[in-house]
Amino acid sequence: ESLQADSGSDCISLELRTADGALVTLTADFRQEVKIFRALILGELERGQSQFQALCFVTRLHRNEIIPSESMAKLRQKNPRTVRQAEEVRGLEHLSMDVAVNFSKGAQLSSHIHNVCAEAKEAIYTREEDVKFWLEKGVDGSMFEVLPQTSDLPDLQRCKLCADRWKPCICSYSLSIEWYPCMLKYCKTRDAGGKVSSYKCGIRSCQKGYTFDYYVPQKQLCLWDEET
Q1: Element (DSSP H or E) covering residue 123
Q2: Which Pfam families does its entry note (predicted)?
Q3: How far is residue 170's CA from residue 225's CA, in Å, rounded to a whole number?
């Protein structure tokens, strides 16, 4: 896992390779309050898929989810090859990604979308509730398109239950960020006059899993989501 911080543009990114070979990147854009997950998933060539498939999930970044970029930039990563254990396991978040984001207009939401999601131009997803928040901040609504829902298409199934590889369905993709600096730790000190003050004295690490559900026009784009 590798961590990078850029306090100038107030963002951080974290990259890891999962057990099944997928490359997962998390980019947190503090300035725009946007979090971008990108997954590069190895394709199944023998089943007609391309070499890899790219997905981007864009959600709102809340305060105190992750340490500030300025603090991250000061972290020294000793032994980057060490497998670290997170101190706190945060609950699994299940997100229904019901809106598509237009890649060519996405830079208005976050300038990082252009670089991070370049391979996933046709597969950038977000949620209606996050869109409402960004619209209130003045983001252009024309970059968002609501995806078909089960209520629009009554026979829309989950991909793992769908027998026909060319039918639309609701795909599910799960990822886990195994270790990331989620909070700053503060210690107290007392000066000669007995006055107590606190100072930053470390970080707390967390692990968090996410499951994203989203519409695909054909099951072929979701072959990992099958009953095994």
Answers
A1: none
A2: OAF_C, OAF_N
A3: 10
pTM score over 0.90: no
Closest CA to 216 of 143, 133, 156, 136: 156
CB 23 within 8 A of CB 17: yes
Rounded (10°) CA dihedral 81, 83, 87, 91: 110
Helix, strand, coil share of the chain (percent; to 5): 20, 45, 35
Residues contacting 222, CB < 8 A, separation 6+: 159, 169, 171, 172, 173, 216
What pLDDT, in 10s, does the model give residues 10-60?
A: 999 999 998 888 999 999 999 999 999 999 998 776 666 667 899 999 999
DSSP 11-24: EEEEEEE-TTS-EE
Task: Return the closest-CA partner of residue 60 out of 18, 93, 82.
Answer: 93
